[in-house]
Each structure stands twice: as C-alpha cells, then as structure tokens.
Amino acid sequence: MRKNILNKVLKLGVFISLFISTQVVKAQNLINGKKLYETRCLACHQSDGGGVPNMNPPLDGSSNVNGKDIARLVKIVKNGYDERIALDGMYYSNAMTANPDFTDQQIADVLTYVRTSWSNKASKITLAQVKAANSKHKISAQK
Ligand code: HEC
Q1: Which value, in Å, is the radius of gyration of the alpha carbons in the chain?
Q2: Could you give the CA distance from residue 97 to residue 111 in angstroms, rounded to a whole number?
Q3: How many other C-beta atoms can be found within 10 angstroms of the C-beta atom of residue 9?
Q4: Phi, psi torsion values for 85, nearest 5 degrees
Q5: SS3 96
Q6: Of 5, 40, 65, 136, whose Cβ has the fewest other Cβ atoms within 10 Å?
Q7: Are 113 and 99 contacting, i.e. CB atoms less than 8 angstroms apart?
Q8: Could you tell me if 59 and 65 are in contact, meaning their C-beta atoms sit under 8 angstroms apart?
Q9: Which of 125, 143, 130 minimizes the C-alpha distance to 75?
Q10: How many CB atoms lie within 10 A of CB 70?
Q11: 23-40 pLDDT per residue, tens
Q12: Which atom of ligand 1 is nearest to the CA of 82?
C-alpha cells in the first residue's frame, strides 16, 4: 500500500518536472526570439511590429505572417526579401536583408515571436517545421 502511494508520488514528480522543463524551454525560445527580433528585425519592422509606411511592411496583423505558408516565412528570414509584390494590398520600397547565419532553431524562435506578438495569435513554429521547409526549398530549387 505504502509502496503504491510512493510510486504515484514519484510518477507525479516526474510528470511535474517534465512539464516544468518543457514550459521553461518554450519560455526560453520566446525570449530568444524576442532578442533576435530586437537585434535583427526591429530596425525595419519596428518594436510594435507596425513597420514603416511604404518602406517596410507591418508584421503585426499581416495575413502572410499569420498564415499557413510556413515555408515562405522561413525562406524570407533566411534569404531576405525583395519581391515588390503587394502585401495585403500595399507595396514597400525597402529590401529585406538576409540572415544566412541563423540556425534553424533561431528561425523557429524569431518566427514564433512574430507570430505570437502584438495582435498576432498564430501557431508557434517548431524546429521540425523549419527543417521541413528547408527540404521543400531544395526540391523547388531543383526544378
Ligand atoms: C532592412 C530592413 C529589414 C530588416 C532588417 C528585416 N526586414 Fe523583413 N521585410 C522588409 C521589407 C522591405 C519587406 C518587404 C519587401 C518587399 O515587399 O519586396 C519585408 C518582408 C518581411 C516579411 C513578409 C511580410 C508579408 O506580409 O509577407 C516577413 C515575414 C519579414 N519581413 C520578417 C522579418 C524578420 C523576422 C526579420 C528579422 C529576422 C526581418 N524581417 C528583418 C525589411 C526588413
């Protein structure tokens, strides 16, 4: 009987510590994402994610940022972006710089930050999603 209770307490302990450590990792990823944003994105997209009219698009409220095309977002962060096509009906004159030094985890973290900050409430981006997006690029690049 005693052993049984002890076992349950132990299992609960393992569960709680696993739960806490995943929460800590998630919180850490978000902090990392925020730091990356502040050092590498903020100058153009601004601290409120609002961008600069006609120059740099807003990330806050952007249908693409909150959308399902994760591969496109990964590619933009990695390679930069200078397509001059309409983004939510507006055009932007600046060219976004590339971030070739970012690791896949850093790309996941910064995208999670922009998709869950300000008024954005889109899903987080995992390392696995970034890796999947990378292989998608390779396939489309070979075409
Ligand atoms: C030098 C300024 C600059 C910096 C730095 C910059 N961006 Fe951009 N970003 C732009 C511009 C300009 C565009 C749109 C370019 C175009 O329309 O051709 C853009 C486009 C985007 C888009 C596509 C938006 C949409 O609605 O489709 C995303 C996502 C994005 N940037 C994220 C980021 C992230 C994340 C960082 C930091 C890692 C970053 N940008 C750093 C200027 C910048």
Answers
A1: 19
A2: 16
A3: 10
A4: -105, 165
A5: strand
A6: 5
A7: no
A8: yes
A9: 130
A10: 20
A11: 988 888 888 999 999 999
A12: 18
Domains of the chain: 2-142 (1.10.760.10)
Q: Which two tokens stand for residue 117?
A: 């900050």
Other CB atoms within 10 Å distance of the CB of residue 73? 23
**What pLDDT, in 10s, does the model give residues 71-111?**
999 999 999 999 999 999 999 999 999 999 999 999 999 99
Report residue 86 as tokens: 């309409």
If you write DSSP's letter for every residue of 22-70 in order, what string do you get? HHHHHHHHHHHHHHHHHHHTHHHH-TTS--BTTTB--STT-TTTTSS-H
Please choose from 54, 56, 64 the residue to mutate so as to test ligand 1's pocket, defined by most ligand atoms within 8 A of CB.
56
- The alpha carbon of 28 is separated from its chain's Cα centroid by a whole number of angstroms, namely 13
